[in-house]
C-alpha cells in the first residue's frame, strides 16, 4: 500500500489483534472495505456476523460477484438497495446451482439497475421448469441509466426491453445479449437507435424469433450477430461501424440484407448454405481491410452451393489487405469430386490467414491451389485444425482420392514478397513436413517464422521439430520462434 494509504493503521490494528485487543474494528470504514476486497463476495457478506460493527462493512465494496442466483430475491433486492456505494461491477451467475425463475430475477433487477455505475453481468444456465413460453418466461429488463457495460445470458428465456418512459442508457458503451428471445424485437431495435447515445459494441447471439432485425446507430463501432436462427431480413445502418461479424444468421433461401457501413474496416460473414446473391447489398466499403471467415469444401458434389456462395462473395472484392479463408474436408470423400478448380480468382492480398481442417486427408493440393493465387502476399498464417486424432493426416487409407492431386509437389511457385510465415497447430506428420518444405522452397524473401505446435506435441517432439525447421529453412537471417503447450517458448 502506498504511504499515507492506511497501511500503517492496518499493520497496527493487526498487531493489536494478535495481542488480544480488537483494534481492527476501530479502523475507518474505507480501510475495513480494503480488507474485505480480496475475499469472495459470499465470504465478505459472512463477516457481517462478526459483530455489529462489521454488519454493513461489506456494503462498502464497489464490486460484487454472486456465484449463484439469490434464493430470496426480495432480500437480495433490499440488500442492493441499501448498498452504500455505487457498484463498478456486479456479476450474478447461476453456476452455483439453482434454476432461474424469470419472476424472481425481475424482482431484484431494478435495484441492480439503480446501483450499477460500471459493468453488469447476468448469466443463467439452468431454467426453472415453471419458466414456460409466454409472460411467465420473460425477464423484465429495467433501464440501467449509469451502467457502462451489460452482458446478459438467459438460457433462452425471454427478455423484455424497458419502455421509453423509464429513461435512457445514458452511459452504456457495450451491450451483449446471448441466448434470449424477444416477443417484440422492434423494442430492442428502438432502444439501440434512440436510447443508447454512447453505444459502441453490440453483440447478439443464439437468439430466437429474430425473423427481421434492423440495427441503426450513429455510435456503434463493433457489432457481432451470431446464430440468430432464421433471419430473413437484416438491415444495418451504422455510419461509424468499424467491425462487423454476421455468422449463420440468414435463412438459406432468398435472404434480404442491406448493410450500410461506409467506414467498415473488418467484415466476417459466415453463412449456412444459402447463396449470397443480389439480395444481399453490402454497400460501399472503401476502408475495408479484413475479410473472412469464408469457407470452401475441397471435395464434394459439383457446383456445391456452399462453395458457390464463397466464390460469389469473393468476387465482390478486387483488393483486400487480409483474407481469412477456411478449407474443409469431409471425413469420407471418395464418393465426391475435387472442387478446388471452381475457385479461380482471389482479391489482391497482403495477408492470407488460411485455416485447414483436413479431417485426416492430405491437404497439400488444396492449400497450394489457394497459395498460387496469392503470390504477392507479405504474410501467411497457416492454421491447421487440431480436431483430428490421427497420427498421420493422410491416414484415411491407401487409395483415397486425396492422394490423386500431386501437381503441387512439382509445380513452380515463387512467393517473392512473403516475409513472415506463421504456422499454428503443427503436429509434425510426414504430410505436414512436405507441405512446409515445399512452401519454404518458394519463400525466398522470408525474414520471420513462428511455429506453434499442437497440444499433442511433447516437449521432446517439439525440439525435434525445431531442428527439422532449422534444416529446411534455407533463407539466411530468418528469425525463428517456436512455441508449444500454452505458447511456452521451446
UniProtKB/TrEMBL annotation:
Signal peptide: none annotated. It comes from the Eukaryota. Residues 21-57 form the F-box domain. Coiled coil: none annotated. PROSITE patterns: FBOX. InterPro entries: F-box-like_dom_sf, F-box_dom, FBL15-like, LRR_dom_sf, LRR_FXL15/At3g58940/PEG3-like. Pfam families: F-box, LRR_At5g56370. This is F-box domain-containing protein. The lineage of its organism: Eukaryota, Viridiplantae, Streptophyta, Embryophyta, Tracheophyta.
Amino acid at each position: 500500500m502506498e504511504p499515507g494509504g492506511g497501511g500503517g493503521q492496518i499493520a497496527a490494528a493487526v498487531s493489536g489483534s494478535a495481542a488480544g485487543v480488537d483494534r481492527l474494528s476501530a479502523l475507518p470504514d474505507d480501510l475495513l472495505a480494503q480488507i474485505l476486497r480480496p475475499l469472495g463476495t459470499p465470504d465478505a457478506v459472512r463477516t457481517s456476523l462478526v459483530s455489529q460493527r462489521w454488519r454493513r462493512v461489506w456494503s462498502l465494496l464497489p464490486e460484487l460477484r454472486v456465484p449463484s442466483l439469490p434464493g430470496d430475491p426480495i432480500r437480495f433486492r433490499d440488500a442492493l438497495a441499501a448498498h452504500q456505494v455505487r457498484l463498478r461491477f456486479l456479476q450474478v451467475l447461476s453456476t452455483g446451482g439453482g434454476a432461474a425463475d424469470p419472476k424472481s430475477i425481475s424482482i431484484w433487477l431494478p435495484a441492480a439497475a439503480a446501483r450499477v455505475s460500471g459493468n453488469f453481468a447476468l448469466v443463467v444456465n439452468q431454467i426453472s421448469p415453471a419458466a414456460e413460453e409466454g409472460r411467465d418466461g420473460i425477464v423484465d429488463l429495467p433501464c440501467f441509466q449509469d451502467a457502462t457495460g451489460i452482458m446478459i445470458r438467459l438460457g433462452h428465456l425471454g427478455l423484455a426491453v424497458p419502455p421509453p418512459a423509464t429513461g435512457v442508457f445514458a452511459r452504456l458503451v457495450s451491450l451483449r445479449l446471448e441466448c434470449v428471445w424477444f416477443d417484440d424485437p422492434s423494442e430492442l431495435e428502438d432502444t439501440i437507435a434512440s436510447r443508447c447515445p454512447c453505444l459502441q459494441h453490440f453483440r447478439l447471439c443464439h437468439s430466437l424469433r429474430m425473423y427481421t432485425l434492423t440495427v441503426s446507430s450513429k455510435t456503434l463501432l463493433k457489432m457481432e450477430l451470431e446464430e440468430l436462427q432464421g433471419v430473413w431480413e437484416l438491415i444495418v445502418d451504422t455510419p461509424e461501424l468499424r467491425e462487423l461479424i454476421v455468422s449463420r444468421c440468414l435463412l438459406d433461401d432468398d435472404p434480404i440484407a442491406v448493410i450500410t457501413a461506409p467506414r467498415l474496416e473488418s467484415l466476417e460473414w459466415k453463412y449456412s448454405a444459402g447463396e449470397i446473391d443480389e439480395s444481399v447489398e453490402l454497400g460501399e466499403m472503401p476502408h475495408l481491410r479484413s475479410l473472412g471467415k469464408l469457407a470452401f469444401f475441397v471435395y464434394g458434389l459439383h457446383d456445391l452451393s456452399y462453395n458457390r456462395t464463397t466464390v460469389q462473395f469473393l468476387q465482390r472484392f478486387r483488393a483486400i489487405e487480409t483474407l481469412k479463408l477456411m478449407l474443409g474436408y469431409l471425413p469420407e470423400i471418395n464418393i465426391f469430386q475435387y472442387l478446388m478448380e471452381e475457385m479461380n480468382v482471389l482479391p489482391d492480398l497482403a495477408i492470407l490467414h488460411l485455416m485447414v481442417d483436413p479431417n485426416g486427408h492430405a491437404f497439400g493440393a488444396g492449400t497450394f491451389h489457394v497459395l498460387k493465387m496469392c503470390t504477392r502476399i507479405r504474410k501467411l498464417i497457416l492454421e491447421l485444425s487440431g480436431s483430428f486424432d490421427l497420427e498421420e493426416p493422410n491416414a484415411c487409407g491407401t487409395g483415397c482420392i486425396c492422394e490423386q492431386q500431386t501437381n503441387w509437389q512439382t509445380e513452380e511457385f515463387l512467393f517473392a514478397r512473403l516475409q513472415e510465415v506463421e504456422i499454428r497447430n503443427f503436429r509434425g506428420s510426414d504430410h505436414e513436413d512436405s507441405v512446409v518444405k515445399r512452401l519454404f522452397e518458394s519463400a525466398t524473401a522470408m525474414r520471420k517464422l513462428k511455429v506453434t505446435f499442437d497440444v499433442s506435441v511433447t516437449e521432446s517432439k517439439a525440439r525435434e521439430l525445431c531442428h527439422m525447421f532449422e534444416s529446411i529453412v534455407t533463407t539466411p537471417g530468418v528469425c525463428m520462434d517456436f512455441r508449444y503447450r500454452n505458447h511456452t517458448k521451446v
